[in-house]
Amino acid sequence: MNASTDVIIAGCGPTGAMLAAELRLHGIRVLVLEKDTEPASFVRIVGLHIRSLELMAMRGLLDRLLAQGRRRPAGGFFAAIGAPAPEHLDSAHAYLLGIPQPVVVDLLETHAVQSGAQVRHGVAVAAFEQDDEGVTVELADGERLRSRYLVGCDGARSTVRKRLGVGFPGEPSRTETLMGELEVAAPQEEIAAKVAEVQETDRSFSLTPFGGGAYRVVVSAAGVGDRAQPPTLEDFKRRLRAVAGTDFGVHSPRWLSRFGDATRLAERYRVGRVLLAGDAAHLHPPIGGQGLNLGVQDAFNLGWKLAAQIRGWAPDTLLDSYESERHPVAEEVLDNTRAQMELLSAGPGPRAVRRLLTELIAFEEVNRRLIEKITAIGIRYDFGEGPDLLGRRMRDIDVDEGRLYDRMYRGRGLLLDRTGRLTVGGWSDRVDLLADAAAALEVPCVLLRPDGHVAWIGDDQRDLDEHLSRWFGEPAR
Length: 477
Prior knowledge:
- The chain starts with a strand and ends in a 5-residue tail after the last helix.
- The chain contains 12 helices and 24 strands.
- The protein folds into 3 domains: 5-170 and 264-375, FAD/NAD(P)-binding domain, CATH 3.50.50; 176-260, Alpha-Beta Plaits (2-Layer Sandwich); 398-472, 3-Layer(aba) Sandwich (Glutaredoxin).
- Strands 1, 2, 6, 7, 8, 9, 16 and 17 form an 8-stranded mixed β-sheet that branches. It has a 4-stranded antiparallel β-sheet with strand order 12-13-11-14, with helices on one face.
- α1 packs parallel to α4 (101-114), α1 packs parallel to α8 and α8 packs antiparallel against α9.
- By secondary structure, it is α+β, with helices and mostly antiparallel strands.
């Protein structure tokens, strides 16, 4: 059976859809299989953090998202400690975008389809086998498909990960929490007073205004029945009365959900021709709103590398760098969510640590460090010794006739040259050249990977050629 497509992606959530679109930028044949036939019936609001907004800007998608979302200050994320956003965050998109998750999924899927990806709904991966040439995928209805690679973006209960035999170690849930958006009949002053009273002993409890008359409600799920069943409005009322002594007259839910604090990380992100991304690779509590963002950022890191492998120009270690770069990032996210959950605990020890951290976060540098961690703009991949900018993402700076990210829509590398003396030579089919002496850059030149991370800094052509080979393979003849 010959490979009928280059990559099959299991799951068409934000990670799978984004990966499909990234692969299509390089002409890779992509088939996305999504087990659900219809979008989720509930409209959950998610937050796109700074780094995700930057990546959307790099692909020309940000304006469409901004039109359907609501900007919020980039502060107060860490364990819901009410610190303001730090001043002068190093980004042109230094805010949180609150947006319905179905809008994000629909926009990214539409983007993938318009780019040429094929998406099939109501189709689930049941099994697969791989060999030296590709992967044979068996669907739930018995149909068999062939591709060169398979990527599991099929969530925390990933069939691909389980069939691949990759361990998913970590900690099971200790606590369960109800979260939803509901309208509330009680006066705002009464709500604020009661929340302040309850939070003296239970920091995980909250009712937060969320616009349009709705409140984001977070309350312990203790005693609520089977976790496999979706929570009901009555579940929320009962738990609110038990914790706060009133149900605040909650009604007309927009969405209701339940989550635990399970924390798990896949032992490997790649086995041969099968890879994992998004929730299939990592699971953690939603505190700080990092989950969707982490998955989308996985897709940006993987897309161009997998495309290079298929196109035949990838250096030997390029595809493996997906795991070596993204696995440590997920480890850090798991650790910061563990820390945040501890800070929401009711015990005297966690409450004392929370009071101490509340004092410390008033210092600008502490606040900035935590925000950069959660929003992912503090990530620095290990590219070897060099200036601090090396391995970090390049912010969206002013360049000739516009902005830097506007020049990255095609998903290629980019050499930003302030000297006017350098060239990309035989790599011009993979790397664009922008010669701009007036660019808002404090170094002579930078070489950017397609995901916007700085792969080289300098002004020497021979040194540049070595780094072009490291990241973009041998030059074309």
